[in-house]
Write a structure and sequence with these properties.
The chain contains seven helices and five strands, in the order αααββββαααβα. The chain is α+β, with helices and mostly antiparallel strands and 168 residues long. Strand 2 and strand 3 form a beta hairpin. Helix 2 crosses helix 3 and helix 4 packs across helix 5.
């Protein structure tokens, strides 16, 4: 086995171990409102906070909540179920768990990553103006150094009101 194949195998094995041990738990706890630090403390398997943050970002982009480009109009989350017929033959059936139709107007522009780089002290002041839960959320997402689109919800609109009050 060449060194590239060994690296690829090791990477695949690490991804599998992370998927089995932590990925589902991180996503579930994030959906319940936990911050990255709280999630890292709750997991049985030790996972660095940075890895938890990266997984939260991946989760939000996979679900279409954060878009780095123009959002797609239709979003679906599907899973494949193994079925066996009366003769024991196996087939997979696609089952849509969640879906939504979105438009660009359903998203707001989030500049937190840029703001953190351009004005670190103002960004720190913005974080201080948030309540503990909202601050935990903002700190749990590794915002890229560019504007991203975020699907409007009550939490992000509340956070943006504080943000706009800070920069105004």
């Amino acid at each position: 086995m060449s060194s590239d194949e060994g690296k690829h195998f090791k990477s695949a094995l690490n991804n599998f171990i992370f998927d089995v041990s932590s990925r589902g738990g991180i996503r579930h706890l994030f959906d319940l409102g936990y911050s990255a630090e709280e999630i890292a403390r709750k997991l049985d398997y030790p996972v660095p906070v940075r890895t938890v943050c990266e997984e939260i970002y991946n989760y939000l982009t996979e679900k279409g909540i954060i878009c780095e480009n123009e959002p797609s109009a239709d979003w679906q989350e599907a899973e494949y179920i193994l079925d066996k017929d009366e003769y024991g033959r196996s087939t997979y059936r696609r089952v849509v768990k969640d879906s939504r139709k979105t438009a660009a107007s359903d998203y707001v522009i989030i500049p937190f990553g840029l703001y953190k780089i351009k004005s670190p002290s103002a960004y720190a002041s913005f974080l201080e103006g948030l309540d503990a839960k909202d601050r935990g959320f903002v700190e749990s997402v590794p915002w890229p150094a560019k504007e991203v689109l975020y699907l409007k919800d009550e939490r992000i609109l509340r956070i943006l009101r504080v943000f706009m009050g800070q920069i105004a």
